[in-house]
Design goal:
This protein is an alpha/beta fold. It is 26% helix and 12% strand. The chain has a single domain, classed as Alkaline phosphatase D (PhoD) (Purple Acid Phosphatase, chain A, domain 2). It is built from 5 helices and 5 strands. The strands form 2 sheets. The protein has a 3-stranded parallel sheet with strand order 1-2-3, with no helix packed on it. It has a two-stranded antiparallel sheet with strand order 4-5. Strand 4 and strand 5 form a beta hairpin.
Length: 227
């Protein structure tokens, strides 16, 4: 084992919607040379809207030739190709390793397990989900075999050739979760949201995470929120 490393500098990010703005924040990643970047989802958006959701925040750039919504493997591949053509995002990937998870828009807005936002029959939605996952694994810097253990990924970051400085538990909050309550909305007095059986991680992933934390009981000691 190598000597302990006192500090680790990393950047966390998510929700990069191509048409809403340029990816200039990634210039900072390339400039500051972080130890790693933790990207926890919505690397792409499955939906390419023809009009901005907020009239006070107009689209900055168009998505030429893109379908309104991704359904097929080719659709998702084209979306990743467009996003990864951005020079600032390219520079960030070149400057630091990325630790990846995903959220809903890599597949479909507000999906949960085998349930789509539109309540598509599961046997059809699973085909779309498989296409989305294949494109994700093709384009994201994830370790070999990650596709067979989604949601149970423990990433170890090497700080030096002589040892490991950090163990990072990367969780999946989509594949094993309960369907989102209250019609996917935020509603007052929605008793469905308080049902005790509801889960974000699923039983298997929760048990795995608890085992990981028990292996490193001091992992949360002294933890402080970022400012």
């Amino acid at each position: 084992m190598g000597a302990a490393v006192a500090t680790t500098a990393f950047w966390r990010c998510r929700c990069q919607r191509y048409e809403d703005g340029y990816f200039t924040a990634y210039q900072q990643i390339a400039t500051e040379r972080f130890d790693f970047v933790f990207h926890y989802g919505d690397y792409i958006y499955d939906i390419a809207s023809s009009a901005p959701a907020n009239v006070h925040c107009p689209f900055v750039r168009a998505m030429p030739g893109e379908p309104d919504e991704s359904y097929t493997l080719d659709d998702y591949r084209q979306r990743y190709a467009l996003y990864k053509n951005d020079p600032d995002l390219q520079a960030a990937h070149a400057a630091a390793p990325f630790i990846m998870s995903y959220d809903d828009h890599e597949v479909d807005n507000n999906w949960a397990g085998d349930i789509s936002e539109e309540n598509t029959p599961p046997e059809l939605f699973l085909l779309r989900r498989a296409a989305a996952f294949q494109a994700w694994y093709e384009h994201m810097p994830v370790p070999p075999g990650a596709a067979t253990r989604a949601g149970l990924v423990s990433s170890r970051i090497g700080a030096s050739p002589s040892g490991i400085s950090l163990s990072l538990n990367v969780l999946d909050t989509r594949l094993f979760r309960s369907d989102q309550p209250c019609g996917d909305g935020v509603k007052a007095n929605c008793h469905e949201a308080l049902e005790p059986h509801r889960t974000m991680l699923g039983d298997t992933q929760e048990r795995w995470l608890l085992r990981r934390l028990q292996e490193h009981p001091g992992a949360l000691d002294g933890a402080r929120p970022a400012r």
